[in-house]
Amino acid sequence: MPMDENNQTLCNFAFRSDDAPPRKETRRAFLIVMSGSRAGEMYPLQKPEVTVGRAPGCDIVLDDPSISRVHARFLLDAEGKVTVVDNRSTNGTYVDGASVVTLPLCDGQRIEFGGTTILKFSYQDTIEEEFQRGLFENAIRDGLTQVYNRRYFMERLAADVSHAIRHVVPLSLLMLDLDHFKKVNDTYGHPAGDSVLRQLSLLIGNTLREEDILARYGGEEFVMILRDTDAARAEVLAERVRRLIERTPFRHEGKIIEVTVSVGVTTLGGAVDSAEAMVREADRLLYDAKHCGRNRIRSADMPLLETS
Length: 308
Description:
alpha+beta; 34% helix; elongated
């Protein structure tokens, strides 16, 4: 039910006495994601109006099917107060469990869109902001390589599949595995193997676009989500990555370590119609590449490429 006048009065009093950012300190208004694949991510409210929704043109894009295209607006006034305004959304906007149309926000209040996405409104100074961002990064990054971790990858892939199906755009996935990596560890030691993984992550990351996602799937296995990328372009990128790794000398404590990779390439479509199906198909094709000699790429609709 709607928030009553007593709650609103308390909210306004709390804002005036405690929540308004001190004028002489850097204390900004943020929305912090509390659920889903982006849990912990922070969005600053710096403009007079910030829109939130599924539409690509929104200031904050949340890929949740229960959220309207332009679900709500956040209005920032000259004194630093923020008001949330529901934009006639399908599933409504809720603050601390109460349905709202327009409401000035208090520090710490929870905002719910469509029943699944929960945000926290908060004022943060520089130290608090850095701490919160650090928590978010630690939750989604692999400790060794600093690329995204498997949990984040799976949640992001599921969201990207939904987005690709809804907007009818291509989506591809690469799954890459280092060839004979156990031999690297046995010959040069595990610190050398760790060094190779870090160097490999940096090398691949530098070849991808900003919108692409690189994650460590497990051990010496990596995955790449390629948004708006069809099968032909994904195969070209996979071969470029394979050749780059083959031709790059990996160094550790004065020693040069030669590395090759096998890559499975798959694209959303047909029977490959979900995040789980994409992972299964990419893994199957990766296994085919290894079975056929390693140091090559494999996709469902291309002949096996010979290496040179």
